[in-house]
Design goal:
The protein folds into two domains: 4-116 and 245-312, FAD/NAD(P)-binding domain (3-Layer(bba) Sandwich), CATH 3.50.50.60; 119-240, FAD/NAD(P)-binding domain, CATH 3.50.50. It is built from seven helices and 21 strands. It has helices spanning 16-27, 61-75, 123-127, 137-140, 156-165, 185-193, 291-312; strands at residues 4-12, 33-35, 49-50, 59-60, 78-80, 84-88, 94-98, 103-111, 115-117, 133-134, 148-152, 171-175, 197-200, 203-211, 216-224, 230-234, 237-240, 244-246, 257-258, 262-263, 277-279. A hairpin with a 4-residue loop joins strand 7 (94-98) and strand 8. The longest helix is centred in the last third of the chain and has 22 residues, at 291-312. The two termini are 32 Å apart.
Length: 313
């Protein structure tokens, strides 16, 4: 039998945006409930060293998220380990149905569902997912100690993954379809200084090659973006690091989106196209995508929600 719970503010998502919204909504005496979602702590839980969080010269991503969760709890935010599977934005109050069957009604919703790793969509990539193909170096890098690994991509994600994987691998091949990286300059410098990393320019992944029984990766076949010529690179692990896409499944047909699916908010606010629904963090930010900007938006969303509720009464 399902149980129903009502709250003034329901926060969906548990990264820097969600937890910060929890802190501010609690301080506003709104007694918020936060539903953590499929990945409690968000993307920072799959990151190691974080060097750009103000006040910490270096902090482990998972440790930072544990601290944020504890802070939100200490302020009075109720944190629930569940997943919202359906969100009705047409009813008032709003209704969120969770995987457990429990329903939550809320006067205002703060969406902080973040973003998830993008995939290339190759059949061989899908076939070997979890068997040599991964999108999370910190999750799976440990399994490739002393082995050769390939990373696909050229932005911050790819360079960070490649650098992290040198802690385990004997060699890391970085495959990029251009001859120039999009990553921050400081990350590029570290990559080019690392003797374990070899970039291959003007190439993209064509196929993952591996064994059938048991499933396992043996190599990748990459194609030259200019000539189409194929090249085979031996490796035991392939890390797809081509960025992230906003996790908008709950609201993609209910809220206005832009720039490839990011939730659109009014300039200078976190207000979405539906009154009472606010969005913060990587779900809406296609430009900065930083933990600190996500936290800032979480603060804004809680303040916007507080104002909305006050004006609605």
């Amino acid at each position: 039998m399902s149980q129903d719970h009502h709250t003034k503010v329901l926060i969906i998502g548990s990264g820097p945006a969600g937890y910060t919204a929890g802190v501010y909504a609690s301080r506003a005496m709104l007694s918020p409930i936060l539903i953590q979602g499929i990945e409690p702590g968000g993307q920072l839980t799959t990151t190691t060293e974080v060097e750009n969080w103000p006040g910490d010269t270096e902090v482990q991503g998972p440790d930072l998220m544990v601290r944020m969760e504890s802070h939100a709890k200490a302020m009075g935010c109720e944190i629930i380990g569940d997943i919202v599977t359906n969100l009705d934005v047409n009813s008032r109050p709003f209704v969120a149905t969770c995987d457990s069957g429990i329903k939550y009604t809320a006067d205002a919703i703060i969406l902080a569902t973040g973003a998830r790793a993008k995939w290339l969509g190759l059949p061989s990539e899908e076939k070997y997912k979890g068997f040599g193909v991964s999108a999370c170096a910190t999750c799976d890098g440990f399994f490739y100690r002393g082995q050769e690994i390939a990373v696909i991509g050229g932005g911050n994600t790819a360079v960070e993954e490649a650098l992290f994987l040198t802690n385990f691998a004997s060699k890391v091949t970085l495959v990029h379809r251009r001859d120039e990286l999009r990553a921050e300059k400081i990350l590029q410098e570290r990559l080019f200084r690392n003797p374990k990393i070899e970039p291959i320019w003007f190439h993209e992944l064509d196929e993952v090659i591996g064994t059938e029984s048991p499933l396992g990766v043996e190599a990748i076949r990459i194609s030259n973006t200019k000539t189409g010529k194929l090249l085979e690179v031996p490796c035991k692990g392939v890390f797809i690091a081509i960025g992230h896409a906003p996790a908008t499944e709950l609201v993609k047909n209910a809220l206005e989106t832009h720039n490839g699916g990011y939730v659109k908010v009014e300039p200078g606010s976190t207000r979405t196209s539906v009154a009472g629904i606010f969005a913060a963090g990587d779900l809406t930010d296609h430009i900065y995508r930083q933990a600190v900007t996500s936290a800032g938006m979480g603060c804004m969303a809680a303040l916007d929600a507080e104002k909305f509720i006050a004006e609605s009464n």
